[in-house]
Amino acid sequence: MDDLRSVRGADVDFMEIAPENWIRVGGALKKKFRYFADRYPLVSHGLSLSLGGPHPLDEGLLRDIKRFLDEFGVKLYSEHLSYCADHGHLYDLMPIPFTDDAVTYVADRIRRAQDILERRIAIENVSYYAAPGKEMDEADFVNAVLEEADCDLLLDVNNIYVNSINHRYDPREFLARMPGHRIAYLHVAGHYVEDEDLRVDTHGSAVCDPVWSLLAETYQKFGAIPTLLERDFNIPPVPELLSEVSRIRELQEGRLSQLEKHA
Question: What end-to-end distance do the CA atoms of the chain give, in Å?
């Protein structure tokens, strides 16, 4: 956090935080957090709600999150379209079966979460490595959940690319099927190349060229949507991170320039 103080306000449009890491934190750490909360718009990305999990929704956690969002003026909360707990936390994002029953189940839990939080939430399309019980394809499943829950979408461009390699589909076709009117913001990140036909979503490396290209296509289709660069480990010096953030901004500005020319 101390290194991030060197960032100028003009270099970063917003920051994303995981509320579970900051709820009930006090003392010096809270003061450091307040420094950034006072200077940047924040969005909140949950890690442990387990929307597709078999156990009752953790409404106590949701109420804690609501108090946290209200205290720091965080308008947007997002979570993963997955589950991560079964008699304890699994510390991984497990795939929800792509079935009609799962659509109904997850949509009910999202609506309940929105009621408690008193705000719309965005759900993220996740990377996955198996599709147990699959009855529909991933894009149909995502769209069905969004429609039935009437919630927003956090579109992860890197996850589209990773899944397209691992499950052998066209990432551009998937992108074309996403409902642009529901996209709240985007994620872009790096991943690990395990093999020619296997990518692992790690957020531990620089964004690769194919993902940059897919991000540019996303802007072409949906406009210059706010975009977060994710980096969870192997974190390089701040100037290196900012160079990737600058590339995001260049792609966005390029799209805006195109729109102005045709206005």
Answer: 42
